[in-house]
Amino acid sequence: MSVKIIIGYLRLLNRVLQQEHIDLSGVVAPELWQDFAACLENPDEQEFDVERYVVLLRAAQPYFTRPITLVLAEHANLQDLGLMGYLASTSLDLQQALQLLQRYYSLIFKQTNLEQLDVQQFSDYIQIVWNASYPDYREMYELNLALIFKIAESIAQDTLIPPQMIQFGYAPHTALYHFEKFYGCSIQVHAGQYAIRFPHQILKAKSIAADQQLNQVLSSQAQQSLNSISSVEIQQQQFKQKIQSYIEQGLLQQEEVLQRYVAKRLHCSERTLQRQLKAYQLNFQEILDQYRLEQSKLYLQQGKSFSEIAERLNYADQSAFGRAFKRWTGFTPKQFLKSL
């Protein structure tokens, strides 16, 4: 799965790197750094996905003594979250801000197929929960959790009561005590689910910049954005999943030209397939690379040899697989295994 993120996340990371005089251009793969720079320069024409963003976060981590996700959250402002940030700041109180966050959370990303955020209210506390199905995204989950906390802090007129509980869906790569100090409470790890719990009284915490008229205008814009992308994204995802299923079949059968095989399964010519992909703003090679990346990570975790993975994914040899893996992630397969 490839989930695109809004430009604010890239600007936030770039701002922190510049302030700390950190240059990652010689640390990550050149193509990755070039794409990062291109997206910052032309955000309307370029897109950046979560997976590559996480690679940059991991590359930056050795330069900090604390989790990079917490450093970013402390440097973040509401504008970094785009429309979602403005909606939160103009809300009457935290209760309204959290309701809007739940409704429009997917607008932080450029696709709607990430896990949905759920705001749950109980008699004496409120908690924000979302399932986390992708361990490769753990830094992104940690960052979003920290951003939710910082948003609540920044828009409340009075000092915010610390959370009662923080839950991580995956154990972080850095020590838990950093997060406990940041949130002011204990951290639990419960597989596959992130959560933050506040006492119920924070719901009435008033917003510094409350403006209901502007908030209604922004809410209307957010709903229009959500409506416009939902149907297109669903159709795009369905077509993409169909392509991936045929790619999987083609790889199992060791088909030499996968695009020709997929076109045949779709009962069309390769040219027609290309037109259909273009209509959905998709690229066959990108879909193939994404599938190979996800499968290669799975195979590596299962302990399969590099040569076996190369054969299963239809690479000429082990070296070709290694070069492709580093191009995708910025790490060699050996470095990836070591990070696990």
From TrEMBL:
GO cellular component, one term: cytosol
Top-rank taxon, per record: Bacteria
Coiled-coil residues: none
Key word Mitochondrion present: no
SUPFAM superfamilies on file: Homeodomain-like (SSF46689)
DNA-binding recorded as keyword: yes
Name by which UniProt lists this protein: AraC family transcriptional regulator
